[in-house]
C-alpha cells in the first residue's frame, strides 16, 4: 500500500512550578488543566483553534479542533490523568510530523492559559513535557506516558480478528507479526528519545528508549498495564483496512527522528503488503527482552542471535537487513519514500561509524550530548531534571532553545507547522473541520463529533479516511447556513 493514512497520539508529562521552580507530581494535570475548559478564560483559546467538545454535553473531556481536525483530551495512565493530543488523519509522513509539532504548540497554549487562570491561587507556571517516564522517586514502577503511532493497514494482519474466525486459512497475521517484530525492536536506535532510568540491578543509567521498558507482550489490545508491541484497532473504513496501533515508541522532539520513525515503518509495511510470503530477514526469540537489551545499549554493540541460523546481529545490522529487503521487494518509490530510504541509509551508516555525529538529528544522541555538557553528574537530581526539561514544549524547553539557536536539524519548517495548526490534511479531517467551523459560525446548539462520524440527527458517517468530500454532509451544512 503506497497510499496510507498516518496519525500519532502523544501523551504529555506534567508538573507545576512554585516561586523558584519547585515541581510536584504530575497527577495534578486533571485538577489544574481541565478547569480551563470550563471557564471564561478558555474563550480566546477556543476561538483561536475553533475548539468544540465531542458533543453538546459540556461535561465532555474531549476537545476537537476545528482549525485542523485534531483532538485534545485527558487520558488516564495508572490512575492519573494526563493531557494528550491526537493529530488528524494525514496522508503523508511529513504532514503527520508537521501536525505532531503543531500539537506541541497547541498544548503549550493550553499551558499558558491554564497558568494565567491558576496563578492568583497557588501556581506560578506549568511545565508540560513530551518526556516519556515520570520518576518522582527511585522506583521501577514509575508512571509512563508515550507516543502511539497509527498506520492504516491490511485487515488480514490483525491477529485478534483472525483468532475469532478460525475458518480462515493459515493466518497472514502470524506471518506479519513475525516479519515486523525484529524491525520494530531494533528501531529504538532511531526513535529513542533517550532518558535516565532507574532499575534495581543498575540504579540510575542512561537508556536509548525509556518507553520500551513499558512493553510486556508482543500482541494484544491492552494499552495501560500489559502493554503490547503490536495492536490493531477497529477502523470505520472499507472492510479491507484496519488501524495498526504501535504504542511502544518515545515521543520525539526531533522532527527528523519522527519522520524516519514513520517513514521506515511505512516502507516495511508496504513490502509485506505487496508480498505476503516474505520471511523476516532475522528471527529473534524472546523479542521483548531483546528490545530491552537494545534500549540499554548506548554503545550499539549488543548482539542478538538469529534463532534460526545462530548468526548474531546488532540493532544497526537488523535495520540494515530490513532496508535491503525493502529495496529488493518494492517496485517504484514516491519522492517521500526515496527521501526516507536515503536518510535511513545515512543514519545507519553514521550510527555504525560514530553515533555522536547524529547529535543534531536523533533525540537520544542530542539529549546525551548536551546533558554531558551541562551537568557533571548526569544521574544527579539536576541531570534528571534536565532529562525532563529537554522535552518541555514551551519556549524554555531545552530542545526548543537548541532549535532557536540552530543547533538541531529540523525536518519541517515553521511555516509548515503553522499551516498544520490552521488547516486540516486533505483527508476526512477536512470534513470534520468544516463541520465544526459551521456549527460554531452558525451557533448551532446541537452537535456530535468523532473520528468517523459527525452530527447526531441525522448522522453522517465518514467511513473513508482518504475522502475529503461528502455530498450529503455538505448539503446539511449549507442548510444550516441558510437557516441562520
Automatic annotation (TrEMBL):
Q: Which InterPro entries match?
A: Pup_ligase/deamidase
A Pfam family recorded for this sequence: Pup_ligase
| Example GO biological process | proteasomal protein catabolic process
GO terms for MF = ATP binding
The name of this protein is Proteasome accessory factor PafA2
Per the UniProt entry, what species is this protein from, by scientific name? Answer: Candidatus Sungbacteria bacterium RIFCSPLOWO2_12_FULL_41_11
Amino acid at each position: 500500500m503506497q497510499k496510507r493514512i498516518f496519525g500519532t497520539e502523544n501523551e504529555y508529562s506534567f508538573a507545576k512550578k512554585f516561586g523558584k521552580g519547585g515541581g510536584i507530581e504530575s497527577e495534578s494535570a486533571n485538577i489544574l488543566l481541565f478547569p480551563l475548559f470550563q471557564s471564561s478564560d478558555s474563550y480566546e483559546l477556543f476561538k483561536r483553534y475553533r475548539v468544540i467538545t465531542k458533543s453538546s454535553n459540556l461535561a465532555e473531556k474531549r476537545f476537537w479542533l476545528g482549525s485542523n481536525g485534531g483532538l485534545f483530551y485527558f487520558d488516564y495512565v495508572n490512575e492519573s490523568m494526563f493531557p494528550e493530543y491526537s493529530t488528524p488523519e494525514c496522508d503523508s509522513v511529513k504532514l503527520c510530523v508537521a501536525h505532531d509539532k503543531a500539537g506541541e504548540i497547541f498544548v503549550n497554549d493550553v499551558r499558558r492559559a491554564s497558568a494565567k487562570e491558576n496563578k492568583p491561587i497557588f501556581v506560578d507556571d506549568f511545565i508540560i513535557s513530551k518526556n516519556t517516564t515520570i520518576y518522582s522517586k527511585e522506583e521501577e514502577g514509575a508512571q509512563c506516558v508515550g507516543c502511539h503511532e497509527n498506520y492504516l493497514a491490511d485487515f488480514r494482519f490483525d491477529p485478534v480478528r483472525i483468532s475469532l474466525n478460525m475458518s480462515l486459512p493459515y493466518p497472514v497475521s502470524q506471518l506479519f507479526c513475525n516479519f515486523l517484530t525484529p524491525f520494530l525492536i531494533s528501531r529504538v536506535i532511531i526513535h529513542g528519545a533517550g532518558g535516565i532510568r532507574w532499575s534495581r540491578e543498575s540504579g540510575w543509567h542512561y537508556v536509548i528508549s525509556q518507553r520500551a521498558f513499558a512493553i510486556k507482550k508482543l500482541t494484544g489490545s491492552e494499552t495501560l498495564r500489559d502493554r503490547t508491541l503490536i495492536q490493531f484497532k477497529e477502523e470505520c473504513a472499507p472492510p479491507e483496512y484496519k488501524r495498526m496501533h504501535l504504542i511502544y515508541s518515545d515521543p520525539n522532539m526531533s522532527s527528523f527522528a519522527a519522520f524516519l520513525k514513520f517513514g521506515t515503518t511505512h516502507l516495511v509495511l508496504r513490502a509485506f503488503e505487496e508480498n505476503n510470503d516474505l520471511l523476516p530477514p532475522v528471527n529473534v526469540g524472546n523479542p521483548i527482552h531483546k528490545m530491552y537489551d537494545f534500549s540499554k545499549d548506548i554503545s550499539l554493540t549488543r548482539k542478538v542471535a538469529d534463532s534460526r541460523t545462530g548468526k548474531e546481529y546488532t540493532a544497526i545490522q537488523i535495520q540494515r537487513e530490513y532496508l535491503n529487503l525493502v529495496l529488493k521487494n518494492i517496485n517504484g518509490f514516491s519522492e517521500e519514500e526515496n527521501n526516507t530510504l536515503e536518510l535511513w541509509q545515512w543514519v545507519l551508516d553514521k550510527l555504525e561509524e560514530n553515533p555522536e555525529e547524529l547529535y543534531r538529528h536523533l533525540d537520544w544522541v542530542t539529549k546525551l550530548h548536551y546533558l554531558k555538557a551541562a551537568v557533571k553528574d548526569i544521574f544527579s537530581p539536576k541531570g534528571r531534571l534536565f532529562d525532563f526539561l529537554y522535552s518541555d514544549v514551551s519556549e524554555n524547553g531545552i530542545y526548543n532553545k537548541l532549535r532557536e539557536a540552530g543547533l538541531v536539524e529540523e525536518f519541517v519548517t515553521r511555516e509548515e507547522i503553522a499551516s498544520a495548526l490552521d488547516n486540516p490534511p486533505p483527508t476526512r479531517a477536512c470534513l470534520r473541520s468544516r463541520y465544526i467551523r459551521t456549527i460554531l459560525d452558525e451557533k448551532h446548539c446541537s452537535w456530535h463529533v468523532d473520528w468517523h462520524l459527525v452530527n447526531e440527527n441525522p448522522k453522517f458517517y465518514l467511513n473513508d479516511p482518504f475522502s475529503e468530500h461528502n455530498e450529503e454532509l455538505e448539503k446539511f451544512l449549507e442548510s444550516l447556513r441558510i437557516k441562520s
